Amino acid sequence: MKKKRMLALGLSIIMALSLTACGGGDNAEKQPAQETQETQKTQEAEPEAAPEADTAGDTAEAEGETEAAEGTDLSAAITLWTYPIGNWGDSATVESLVASFNQKYPNITVTVEYLDYTNGDDQVNTAIEGGQAPDLVMEGPERLVANWGARGLMVDLSDLFASEAGGEIYESVNSACKSSDGKYYEYPLCMVAHCMAINQNMFEAADAMQYLDAENHTWTTENFLKAVQAVYDSGQENVGAIYCSGQGGDQGTRAIINNLYSSTFTNAEHTAYTADTAENIKALETLYAQDGINFDASINGGEEITLFRNGTLAMSFCWNAAQQINSDNAAAGTTNNGDTILPMLFPSDDGKTELCGGIWGFGVFDNGDQTKIDAAKTFIDFICNDPDQVNESVKASTYFPVRPTLTGIYDGTETADTMNTFSTYFMPSMGDYYQVVPGWAEARTEWWNMLQRIGTGGDVATEVATFVENANAAAGAGQ
Fold it and tell me: Where are the alpha helices (DSSP H) in 89-170?
């Protein structure tokens, strides 16, 4: 049996990503803080008709002041719990956003608590059980819609979607935020397509760049395997890792497996898990047999990124735009020792990669207090829709807007070129948002348990069948 081991050299710091997860919403663990960027406004008020008299301008101004005053009449104290979606996990950034909100709504107090993807779910569930659920949570549909929403704990936000801005949201995002009974349990702010990345210097040294299209960030399954073999043969024992110590970053392992031979993880209706296809089984068998690809039960997605950044690994399956612009340990787009990081689409046999996406926004717990519910909705509307605020809200995520009318978010910033690359070459490949299948939390656990069993020599077909059986039992499929 092929021995599967992973060097753990240099793993002195566990990096948390927003993947998602690589956690929630399949964001990664906590993303590092990024400098606040200069505000870029992309929406301007439509010109008003010329006043008929000199007093018309004064009248309009007075009406505006009255409207603003009415907006401040609402008085409440609400709690916001946020998972680490980009810099929404950074207290300084969030405090600045809340301060902007309070300039317009000074009578609504917002207390923030910061969650991570290790204990965050336990904290929320404990609060729910104790009757102390937060008023607002920032996360993705897999929690807000498929979990807490499906359990009848969330407020229907359909009225926000009925607004002009709500009507502009991409249809695929709109659908992910809606339950099967037509209720909206998430109002989205931002999204990203997760990808992979390679250490370009290592690939160049191994003469492996010939196997990929660097300009378009693409490669075929056949050439991916050739590249991995070339890097391994050059002396790099650990090329890539199928990490599986937990759910962190699991969108990366799902994506590499589903894309290699063009298969699926769930059905199109999002009612059942379909990972037991011949194509997925072939992909897992291929990865297990490939020199340089190791199934590693000691690390998750965030830890895989740390190993990639410090040169232990030659590629990462847990990557996205926020990771590419991270400069905590070295210049953005480079490893700790200065090697160039090249983001890549996952390889596919049919030339069509489908990337797992992350969609993040806000949900409101129904705590029985209508005043707090109204205040929470007011906060959501300001953060996501106010024309003078929304760009800063999206930039704080380090991801992309969910409305096509919001353009040029990163223009004029030092990350503009990188964000444009991801917008051009990666976002169009965002695939089906399937993370709303019932039983999602249980399915994620079953997934990494399955990978662990395969990594220790378990029969692939048997282990995948066990995964599907257990995941579909949790989903209630076929009942």
Answer: 91-104, 120-129, 141-143, 158-161
